[in-house]
Amino acid sequence: MSDLSKRSADNIRVLSVAMVEKAASGHPGGAMGGADFIHVLFSEFLRFDPLRPDWHLRDRFFLDPGHMSPMLYSQLALCGFFTMDELMSFRQWGSPTPGHPELDRERMIENTSGPLGQGHTMAVGSAIAERFTAARFGEVTAHKTYAFISDGGIQEEIAQGAGRIAGHLGLNNLILFYDANQVQLSTKVNEVTSEDTAAKYRAWGWQVYTISGNDHDEIRAALTSAIAEKDKPVLIIGNTVMGKGLLDSNGSSMEGRSSTHDQPISKAGASPEVTYKSLGADPSQPFMIYPDVADYYKALLEKKHQDALLREKSFEEWGVMNQDLLAKYRTWHEKKTFSTEMISEFTQKSNNATRAASADFLTWCSQNIDNMIVASADLSNSDKTDGFLKHKKPFTKGDFSGGFLNAGVAELTMAAIANGMALHGGVIPVCGTFFVFSDYMKPAVRLSALMQLQVIYVWTHDAFRVGEDGPTHQPIEHEAQIRLMEHLRNHSGERSMRVFRPADADETTVAWSLALQNLDSPTGLILSRQNIKSLPGFEGLSRASSALEASKGAYIVMDDEQPLDLVLFASGSEVATLVGAAEILKKKRSVSLRVVSVMSEGLFRDQSEEYQSEVFPVAVPRFGLASGLPVTLAGLAGSNGLVAGLDHFGYSAPAEILDEKFGFTSENIAVELEAFLTR
Q1: Going by C-beta distance under 8 Å and a sequence separation of 6 or more, which residues neighbour residue 432?
Q2: What is the DSSP string of 568-617?
Q3: Which of 159, 468, 502, 561 is the most buried (most CB within 10 A)?
Q4: Which among 411, 486, 574, 601 is annotated as catalytic?
């Protein structure tokens, strides 16, 4: 190890400690142990352009243990992406250095990280997207994906899915560094696990190297071998020291202690001043880059820029020889692969289940959107993502010419992989499963929303009408839960997610079109298992033309002359139920009714006040129908309204029997409406 290389890593250690000390909050121990690896990686191996941090051909680095953010910020400060003032504002209001890293490509932060396990699983998604891209444009677009993981990330169940899938697909472009410091937040690792991590990853098909993670020569050798690997993803197990370099006031070592994990070192009994001095810093001024380290990084960053220019020149030369491919590549990365004009001739079958309508649209996508990747959690023939799979073969080891990921039974892993695909750029990730299993996915869905990623979730079997499969498979509370994301704002002040539950096949087309146009947040499509009667066209229009109004979130599908006695509203299959109920009621008594389809309350609330009042006149009573918790639609009921729904789990029985037993027939709803009007 050269003195300069060691000083660079020590500089990272000092900055990491100083950040946590000043904030009086944070995690210094792991950052100190991981400093050697991240320095060697960024300085000698990671390909990036310091003048263009979002350069399309850059290697990607994903941090899994977000609590080690001081390490990352300090390393990026050496690379010129953060100032000392910004490091000094660690964890403070408005700071670009939050407690856990948040996606910031202008500063070379590739992912939001915090929930352990998701960061390196996103890296798997990025690696898949890279192979998918290279399969279409050639190795001129190739790059490596690196990830940094800790003991906690290894223990999180999602690591099973990430390891299995990456090994199965032979992702030789993926290099994972496991910071094996044997210390957790409240225990030592050996108190909670005794597994052979190396054997586990080898069993999944990984190449594994075990090294001293604080020895720069061993790190270099492992990375060199990892980059040369042709057939397998690589795990580098780096045996590191928690709190590497920590000393107390007497100069005695404080390394390897749990107490240094999640608090300032001064609170753990170590001495910042003695530690700073030992690591080569001025104790009175720890927030500085050592002059010799600054000169070293200045030179290597210039070289990285020149190397990037050379690689970009090669790419441009390829583009001259492959102009059609270059145009397509740019279209992918500019997110211009879909427009509504493309589906002007697309038609749906009447009276179809919305999952089947989604399958038909996915078939269209397979033939018209060449940068879409679809995944399913072993349910493609049931969630009907096989509409895409029938025309795009699944990924296999060494062959990414298809467009489908068979994720296996691993919903959370699949969703995190989709996030990684979106973070890589150039692709549109879609993943499908039963709606009830969205429970497994919500941590990743939340990160999709926080990072403002275009990920499309296809959730089928949307209600108790799953039937015979019983309450374990029947979503009751799920729509209310996921629609909370429509009410939650992201850091751009926009709704963090779009959630669409189309009322028939034609609304499904609209929902898909909106999802493909939504570039800045995830979209959830909630789809039916059972066939749904197509809604009537409105005021002489075709049903397909009428359904276009669903792009406003809620719209009138059936209307009587003013003045209205009652507005009926629902989403999904319940809209047709309300239409039937309205027809029955009007045969029994003179009443003026309106039926409104609410595909997305969030999108509806984004319309003008005038439009909202036009659809839901303030003075007219409202009756809503929800296949789950009434609170799902409660926000639209108004002060004199009612939402009927379910307040209990489902039961095992045929769907039509459940409709009858739960009162979800048009005949029963007509009775409820009459009672509501005469209350």
Answers
A1: 374, 375, 376, 377, 379, 380, 383, 384, 385, 457, 458, 459, 460
A2: EEE-TTHHHHHHHHHHHHHHHS---EEEEEES-HHHHHTS-HHHHHHHS-
A3: 502
A4: 411
pLDDT score, position 679: 78
pLDDT digits (tens, 9 = 90+) for 430-485: 999 999 999 999 999 999 999 999 999 999 999 999 999 999 999 999 999 999 99
Q: Which residues of the chain have pLDDT under 70?
A: 1
Query: Of 280, 304, 328, at which residue does a domain stop?
Result: 304
Any idea which residue has 């409709």 for tokens?
659
CATH code of the domain containing 419? 3.40.50.970
pTM for this one?
Answer: 0.97
> Could you tell me if 557 and 661 lie in one domain?
yes
- The total of structural domains in the chain comes to 3
- Residue 411 annotated in active site: yes
The answer to whether position 410 is within a domain reads yes
Residues 79 and 140 in one domain: yes
Shared domain for 270 and 132, answered yes or no, is yes
Which run of H or of E encompasses 175?
strand 174-180
Q: Are residues 560 and 643 in the same domain?
A: yes
Q: What is the rounded CA–CA span in Å between residue 483 and residue 486? A: 5
- What Rg value do the Cα atoms of the chain yield, rounded? 28
Q: What is the model's pLDDT at position 1?
A: 56
Distances (CA, A) of 386 to 300, 394, 415, 458: 49, 11, 18, 12
Host domain of residue 364: 340-526
Please give the single-letter amino acid code of residue 250: N
Beta-carbon count within 10 A of 526 CB:
28
